[in-house]
Structure prediction request, 315 residues.
Amino acid sequence: MRKFIAFLLVLFFVFTLPIALLMFNVGRVIFDAPLVKRVVTREVTESDLIPATLRWFAQRRAQERVLTGEAKTAITEPDTLKALQFPTLDNWRQIKSIVLPNRFLETWVSVTLDGVYAWIDTKDPLPNVVLDLKPWKDYNRSPYGHQAIQIVYGSLPPCQQADIDDFLKRLKAAPRMFPAPWRADQNQDYLDERDKIIDTAPNFFALTQELSRVEKQSGVGAENIKQQIRLFRTLAQFSIIVPFVVLLLLVLLAWRSRFDFARWLGVPMLVGGILSLLPTLVYQPIVNTALIAGPMSEGIFSITWGNLFAIVNPT
Prediction:
């Protein structure tokens, strides 16, 4: 009977040790606000997350305007959808550095994370996160915003005579870099589009209102999410206790002889330790496979790597 109980405890220990360590490390990372802020800020400011997102969002928005008829593509407006195919990821990196300097990104990340972490331990139904966009709007009305437009404009291929003839015939603004005397007018069209985007952006973005709208549409209550977060935090904090309790029971069963000690303690600790190392050994190919495709794969890949590295490499 003693051996049967010891065998069950060994199985329980081998399976609970890696799970407990993983939960503990996940909780150690995601509930360490300063650590998360450093990781997210570094990835947002240094990785390709923002450039890839800008490229994806700009192309998607241009396509939506065409499909909904908002943009009179090939009639009176520039073919924005085609024009946005020319800037490379390196061009978008330059645009990001101009229109979204790190000082704005750092502030927005800090305000958002501070609001979310403060909300977890309050009775507020939703996080109180309000982003001040007015300084960013004023900044992009300056020559800096003009520089970003010039990067897109400069990525267009040179205009051919056939494009000029087509333009004169149909008043179609082809996605080409037009020569004088049309260059100034074409350039102004892109600047006007920039001003429209800035004008429609609010001075303050209340993330709380957006979350409330999502809650009504999806039916997922923020309060339920908060309770689940709190529950996971508690489980993560105390998860490491479970394998230690099982280990203590094994010690009580195996203290009689060295052979029992090695069989009921040494082998389970060795197997459990190897299983605990598996996340560190296998998470790279798993993440590579999961994130290899997608319009924002470069950025998501980078920021996910940053968080996973912190989880599976505890310090």
Q: What stands out?
A: Confidence is low (pLDDT under 50) at residues 290-312. The first helix runs from residue 2 to 30. The chain has one domain: 2-312. The chain has 15 helices and two strands.
